[in-house]
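S1.2 Input.
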Amino acid sequence: MNGLELARSYYESFGAPMLHEQFPAWEERVAAGLIGSGSECFGYDDEISRDHDFETGFCLFIPGEDVMDRQTAFRLERAYAKLPKEFMGFQKSRIDPVGGSRHGVIRVPDFFSEKLGRPDAVLSIADWLRIPESSFFELSRGTLFRDDSGLVKRELDKISFFPEDIRLKKLAGELLMMAQAGQYNYRRCVKREDGAAAQLCVNEFVKAALHSIFLLNRSYLPYYKWQFRALRDLPFLSELAEPLEYLLTSKNDPAEAEEKYTLIEDLAGVFIAELMEQDLTKASCGDLEKHAYSVNDHVADASLRNLHVLAAV
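S1.3 Output.
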């Protein structure tokens, strides 16, 4: 049983009856689920991930103080704290008196303020560029067990993915990074026999390629340690996981470097084909830099389009 299944079972066994019996007036106005930080929220947890911050529990999302008063919220916190301390062999977290718990009673404005820096999901262009993408990834995963009033889902729907102009701006920047690091600088560093710098070029190319794959799939990029794990679940271009991993783990001696450079050019061709498939480029060459600027030209908002092509990277 993974963490999401554990949380749902714990909620259905104890949380739902508690709400029904002790807070009937709020039963349909409180949302329950597991959303936020932690591999268990993404369905990625395993035996290794259970060595820290893994516990049974769930989130009870409540309205702001203008809707639910502090006394009711406090009573709900006390009721959650009294739920069984152990479930299916896992301990329930203790409520942190100064906040910071991943589970328990959470006001919706506080939840979004922590993730987005504002109490709701109404974002400006500057917000979309400012907020770490891993925060959006966290909000796009997890599960709501119940949200009759749409308290949380209403906000999550607003940020299900980037607006198209933001996606294109980010994609243009990442394509340019792929061109500079992979198609241009990698071979130059190899010729200088600077293996460390050459590998840094490869690292930058792979990072930009990973982000581009997620953008082309219209899916948020997770925190770095989960990127390859999430890549393998994507609908298309997931087959690039193996060649990208090879670039990261192979050496930069002359023979292998030439093989890597050929692979970089092959990968560039794959990305260009996908750009053409999505009608995102008007360039007709193998240079990713030219395609980057062509993608940037597709940004409809002039103020965003005229920002430096790397403004969203």
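S1.4 Remarks. Residues 164-305 form a domain with the Four Helix Bundle (Hemerythrin (Met), subunit A) fold (CATH 1.20.120).
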